[in-house]
Amino acid sequence: MKNFKKILITGGYGFIGSALIRNLLKNSDVQVFNIDKYSSVSDSESIEEILEIDINIKNRYKYFNLDICNYSKLDEAFNKINPDLVFHLAAESHVDRSIENPSQFLNSNIIGTYNLIEIARKYLKNNQDNKFRLLHISTDEVFGSLEENGKFNELTPYNPRSPYSASKASSDHLVKAWRHTYKLPFIVTNCSNNFGEWQFPDKLIPLTIQKILKGEKIPIYGNGLQIRDWLYVEDHVEALLLIAQDGKAGEDFCIGGNSEMRNIDLVRNISEIINNSSSKKHNLLELISFVKDRPGHDKRYAIDCKKIKSELGWEPKFKFKDALEITVKWYLDKPEWAQKVLNQANYQTQRLGLL
Ligand code: NAD
């Protein structure tokens, strides 16, 4: 990270934020500051292993336990840190939970983002820093749902259809309005579905793994034919670092995995990997259970990555099949981790988000 010395990450105890922090602590010598309120899906173990490697790494990392909805505390921490780069990932992130409890999503995703960019605006007024960047990490779900053809790109109009995607779309609009009006070096990224190690088991891939391991029914929403474009989290992190370093401030970037897959096929792949890795064979046909569809379930998401490929030379390094195998095997090797975070969150993989 040649341009930056002090990097602030919001949501650094979440799935993607922790992968970003591990990468920065391992592969650079920057100082890393993590602001996270430590919600039920957070886990510090995802970073602790790296901190134990050596004292220099530990000394380059600092955690602030705070809620980005608290303007004055966030303002104080931001100005104490004096960051020259911000990755904003703190958000409520589960569509099903947004259907059950939208207000939390509006608070963290919209008000929290407003607080952060307003603090950044005032900070930049007092600090001339030509290299400063703020990356707002968003999702492809803000664009709505696709039919069989076409892909989302940076020019696709917004059409959010769940409380989660509406709250993320609102935050994207705030960031874009602030950068346009106040001429701020903000970048918005919209990424497809991520998967990888350390993801809380309420999302499709780790949830399916838990269900198979426990011998419980795997709930397939509706007909299971919904399509998502999957990206391994390490590839997403590489894209974010490259955009921060070489992306033009004030622009948007779509990031995707070029790996579209129907949910039902993804579940099949996961069960195949588990069957090939253990002596106990699970009969998928007996495990699958088609359940009531998610209310307002989007049919298909897919990202056209032409811009990030042509401008920055980025494309996913990991083949979907290999990354899925790495991920599933990691969960198989760490059964106690999933149980620990599920207990901490008082969540036992039950169905969420029904009306
Ligand atoms: P996550 O739910 O695993 O982690 C989010 C983290 O943010 C948690 O540690 C939580 O405690 C923290 N947080 C939430 N509200 C906060 C608040 N008010 N104050 C401080 N901290 C708060 O989410 P994730 O999967 O790592 O996603 C990170 C970001 O990337 C989100 O903004 C999400 O919208 C976006 N994104 C995720 C995906 C995906 O597939 N996971 C894809 C594209 C974009």
How would you characterize the overall build of this protein?
It is globular, with a radius of gyration of 20 Å. The strands form four sheets. A seven-stranded parallel beta sheet has the order 3-2-1-4-5-6-11, sandwiched between helices. The protein has helices at residues 15-27, 45-51, 55-59, 71-81, 95-100, 102-126, 163-182, 204-214, 233-246, 263-277, 284-287, 306-312, 320-333, 335-344; strands spanning 6-10, 31-36, 61-65, 85-88, 133-139, 186-191, 194-195, 218-221, 227-229, 231-232, 252-255, 260-262, 288-291. By secondary structure, it is an alpha/beta fold. The site of nicotinamide-adenine-dinucleotide (NAD) has 30 residues, from helix 1, helix 6 and strand 5.
Draw up the topology in text.
Elements: E1 6-10, H1 15-27, E2 31-36, H2 45-51, H3 55-59, E3 61-65, H4 71-81, E4 85-88, H5 95-100, H6 102-126, E5 133-139, H7 163-182, E6 186-191, E7 194-195, H8 204-214, E8 218-221, E9 227-229, E10 231-232, H9 233-246, E11 252-255, E12 260-262, H10 263-277, H11 284-287, E13 288-291, H12 306-312, H13 320-333, H14 335-344
Parallel strand pairs: 1-2, 1-4, 2-3, 4-5, 5-6, 6-11, 7-10, 8-13
Antiparallel strand pairs: 9-12
Helix pairs in contact: 1-2, 1-9, 4-6, 6-7, 8-10, 10-13
